[in-house]
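User: Quick one: structure for sequence A, then sequence B.

Assistant: Sequence A:
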Amino acid sequence: MSSDQQGDQKPLMQPFSVLEPDGKKESSYNSSKYEGKCVDPRLMTFCITNFVINVGISQIAPFYPGLAADKAGLTYSQIGLVFSINPLGSILFSFVIGSFIQVWGRKKCLMIALVVQSSVQILFGCLNFMTDNKNLFFSMSLLSRFFQGMSRSVYSTVTFAYVPIFWPGEFQKKLAIMETMTALGLLFGPMIGSVLNYAFGYSIPFFVIAIFFLCAEIPTYSQLPPDSTMKTFEKKKKLPIIKAFTSIKVIVTIMNVMSITAGYTYFNPFFVNHMQSFGISENIAAFILTIPAIFYIGMVNIIPKIGKYVKKTFMMSLALVVCFSGNMIEAPFWGEGNTLASVIIGLILVGVSQSFSMIPSIPQISEFLGPVVTDPQFKNNLTDMASALFIMSMGCGSLVGPLLGGSVYDGFGGNVNLTGSPPQEMVDQEREAFRRAMICLGLWQLIAATLFFFFGDGYKGWSDCCRSCSTGQTPSSEQEQQLTKPLNDDTSDDVMSDNDTLSSEASVGNDSDLLQGPPKKTITIRKEAI
């Protein structure tokens, strides 16, 4: 970074200048009080709350399916729908979040979202008192998960929209921290939930999180600026997201991300039941279920280094191959030898494949959008559009995966109770249902991999990689210099940069003007930042 750029970053903590409607009067939000602190309390509040929100989402995987199937009498198709309704709530509400933020303001939306999160956790914690009434149990499960997804979408969107406003010179670094907390929440959720469930019973994991959300209202209210200082009044044309679907390359890339995401969420409704066929309890199954997340986090720092030497299309194409292989080993597709070892090896490959696809997805989609979005005023918004499409793809994968998985598993006869000492015939029936269900997932991924290979430039990535391996060539110094180009640069190379950063839900509706780098003295907050 040049000395001039460093000089530009120095006054980042100066007061934020906010234009009033008449264009004359200004009000300021003074953030200088956070300057020099080792830990910014605003970032800490965002990160911890984001972590707990994702713990609340993922903690049900080990013990809810058993309660729902064994005591309430739900089928695995219905359990899959309960898992899927959460991302459905996020997807549907994402279309109207912007309007609510404009009417109520960011801060008020965050506080309302925390109240909703606390309420649905309490409701979900009371489900064990409703097992005698199947219809009530099922309807309350759907209701709480749907509103949980809605409120999570609001919280994530608003907090990630604050990032380029509070830390404009290092927003990528802050986004990476917050996204890491998201991954850690999803990783440790099943373990935390399983431990609390084992020690204190079904309701306690949900009640503990509900209390946390209510306590989080205090730092949210005290650390964030008043909404009146963040209001703005300039309108901007909406990003032409619909144009993305006129590009076959964008479409197959979206299918790629959907298939990879489904590779991890597909078996959530019935994974614990399958583990019981090996005599493994819910608590141990919870730890096994975190294997993909562990290997995903382990690969996060490795993938950008690999990306300097291969094309992003190669990495994304390879991701589907690896995920397909992992799911086929889990099955296993050859019929015999369904063992715990094969499941663990398959889960490891699924976790590795997540990193190969998720990390380069946004820059690759952004690149494919270049020829489609021809309006000059949107050329600097390609990453925002790519982020929106990426989140939509992950949401669809999280929605379709468990819904389809539970239905297929039920269809193949997997809805059997394996608690206690089940007869071997029932164990064999469940394992065969699991094997067939995973093969169906593999066929889906195989189709997606084929489409991306031929229509998403996957073949170009493979041919380039093979050529590099045969000649032993590495990127030249000129190419290495291009690795640091911003994602919105239309001339950026196809190899990944260390600056290519995985985005988040909140990228939808973010102010791209704020993402162009730090201003020298003040930041004018405009309406499109809401």
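Sequence B:
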Amino acid sequence: MKQEKEMPFDGDFEDSEADDDEVSQESESEEEQIQIKKKKKKVVNSSKKLIMNVSDTQYPVVKFVGKMIYKFKLSYVPYLENNNWDFCWTDNAVLPETLSKMQPHQRINHFPGMYSLARKNHLGRNLNKMQKQYPEEYDFYPRTWMLPSEYGDFKAQFQKGKAKTFIVKPEASCQGKGIFLTRSIDSINPQEHYVAQRYIHKPLLIDGLKFDLRMYVMICGCDPLRIYLYKEGLARFATQLYSSPHSTNLDDVCMHLTNYAINKDNPNFIFNEDDKQMDVGHKRSMTSVFEFLRHQKQNVDLLLSDIKDLIIKTFCAVQPILQQNYTQIENYANNMCFEILGFDILIDSSLKPYLLEVNHTPSFTTDTPLDSYIKKNLIRDAITLMNINVKTKNDIISQKKDQMQKRVLTGKKTKLSYEEKKVLKMQAQKERDEYEFKNKGDFELIYPCDKSYEEFLLHAQKLYEDWTGANIRRNLKRDTISEQPKPQSCTQKPILTQKSQLYKHVQSKVNTNLIPTKTTKPDQEITQEEPEQTIQQVQEPIQSQPQLEPDNFVTFEDYQQSESLKDLYNFAEKRIPEIQLIDLIQFRRAESKQDNSSFQIIQMSQQNSLSNLSPLMQIKSVQDQKNEKKFSIRKKNKQPKQIEQEQLYFQPLSHYQPPIQQHSISYQQQVQMQNGSFVKPKVFSLKLQHPPKGYKLQSLPILMQQNYTKQRYEQGV
């Protein structure tokens, strides 16, 4: 590495292989070139040398570092057309689609979404949003207006008495193009797109000249943020002695602007001709300026601390945008992209730094030996820091092959949980920290750091969600969930001692345990071999006290308590109105009128039939007699007949038969129609709307003929 640092670069570099490629392409026909391009798209670099794509860069220093220092094979085929490269250096922005097509071992020198910092209007808008929430923390840049959207507010600045100076810049320009100073609103076209800033009229001067610092910042991770500051930079000086702005010198750009592209054409500009003398001329090294300030007994350490702080806060304002555009989900090392940014810092007379703008493609021209020395070492240390070498590439490819083999063997793509992904990220980050600590060169890690910036990151995330509408969709979803009607809670069961689970599995117990001839388990299924035996058990009367499980049922004596009977009846009336239909089925009224002489016999049979019912049905029958429930039968198009009071009582059949047997008997006794066919019955299934907890009602078919009169069940007053 020491020999590589001493390798000189005179500013010019020509690649002989590039000429050979151009000659070979000219000799080949167009069809052959198309076939070669198709093959190159499918071919993966398997050589021992890495391929560096430099088709989209104009700077010779980049090609020199890749070819001469790292021994990369340079490729001049457009990187968007051919994916056969390992490392790409481009001078233009990168789209998220390009990043999504990259392989895990490939690296590129730009982040998608960096326009949020590089464009002057986006930078001013993002910083203004943060300043509204943190006015004291985000005071490191001049007050900024985006025109024409904020033209009204900007116009009001000229109506507050004392004249102020503003510097106006095109929103998407570089190298000082289109910049001018103004003290009148009339000089600004309200329809043009500009970025206007307050002019800092008391800058720090060296040798009577205004200057700014070009500091190189490298971001090599966005989720989480990972920021390095290069220890060397450039100090760019104006070529005219500075004086406060007034109406006579506003047009003197060589006095107020420090851009190299503007001042280099001035006859007063002095070029640096020796890289060992970095404090001479109108372009000097940043470290030489800091040494000069230390000799002036200025607190340079505090100045550097403030500069690092403003750099981190600037990235915090746009971190959600960068994270959203970084589409590599499985890149746990967070290292597929990196970017060298040029931060332009102006220092005022009180040694306070101000951020002027951020350049996502800082100039790598090497007009002077100072430029060649600084920029060559900057690019070299950046490639070393990103660990771009053959060993790293082979390790990543072998890991992908292992994953593919596991997928082929298992036939499934293993999906990692959030905890597993977090462990992999921490492991990759630990390995990266160890490597970068030993190979950072002249870079200094400024974030992560001891100071916490979590508050700014969270607020930036909130602003990004407000801008994209993500929080609106989340709030709407939350509101719709909260506005959904909750299921109506069932009426509270009567509080009875030892009866909290009275209705649990009632129907299954009625058929088995309430009339036990032999004990059976509550959850035991009835086999098909014993259907007759179970039916006989239901028809047998209760001869003794049933032996029930204490968890689900209570003893028979508890049903005889008067208070419990009232509570159970009220509960049945409120909760189970459909139970009346069950009573209607079990106590069907005789179709033929019965004589008054047989009424007493029917009444005695009714009392005897109560002993064959379950305790719940006994409770219901006793209370029905007290309330005198009445029934009436209405025929179609006929007035209801007056029914004697004795006939209002519910009259059950003397010989009750299960519904299934009634179904078969009633079907056999149907009267044939004139054409010899039977009337097709309608079959209904009873289902409780709000059954008690644990209650299961067996479906009971109700047979009603189409030409039969409707039955109406009413409760008497």
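The longest helix spans residues 300-325. The radius of gyration is 45 Å.

User: Thanks, that's what I needed.
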